[in-house]
Amino acid sequence: MKISQRKLKVKSVGSKKHRPFKKRKYIYYQMKRGETLIDIANKYPEVSLRELLDLNNIRTDQMPKAGKRIKLKQIK
Fold first, then answer.
1. Burial of 52 (0-12, 13-18, 19+ CB in 10 A)
2. What residues does each domain of the chain span?
3. Left (φ > 0), alpha (ψ -120 to 50) or beta: where does 10 sit?
4. What are the φ/ψ torsions at residue 24 (nearest 5 degrees)?
5. Cβ-based neighbour number of residue 29 at 10 Å
6. What long-range pairs does 19-28 form, CB within 8 A, spacing at least 24?
7. How many CB atoms are closer than 10 A to CB 31?
8. What angle do CA 70, 74, 76 make, to 5 degrees?
9. Among 31, 38, 39, 46, which residue has the fewest nearby CB atoms (within 10 Å)?
């Protein structure tokens, strides 16, 4: 039995340039007692309620409590 001797072409894995992970910076806000996300959205008109929910991974049935630190918006 004879084993064939083929040459295999191997593509270099590291051929693409590595792009470093860009860390995002945010403005944070600490929830106060009796305050809701709607109150915060009204206090900061540049941020909508939907943006607050999405940015903080909050479902509408689980609102944050007093003392919780939430992201308001991303700093560009």
1. buried
2. 30-75
3. beta
4. -90, 145
5. 18
6. 24/74, 25/74, 25/75, 26/55, 26/71, 26/72, 26/73, 26/74, 26/75, 27/71, 27/72, 27/73, 27/74, 27/75, 28/69, 28/70, 28/71, 28/72
7. 18
8. 160
9. 46
- The pLDDT of 8-24, averaged and rounded, is 65
DSSP 66: T
Is the whole model's pTM more than 0.85, yes or no? no
CB 24 within 8 A of CB 74: yes
Looking at residues 35-55, what average pLDDT do you find? 93
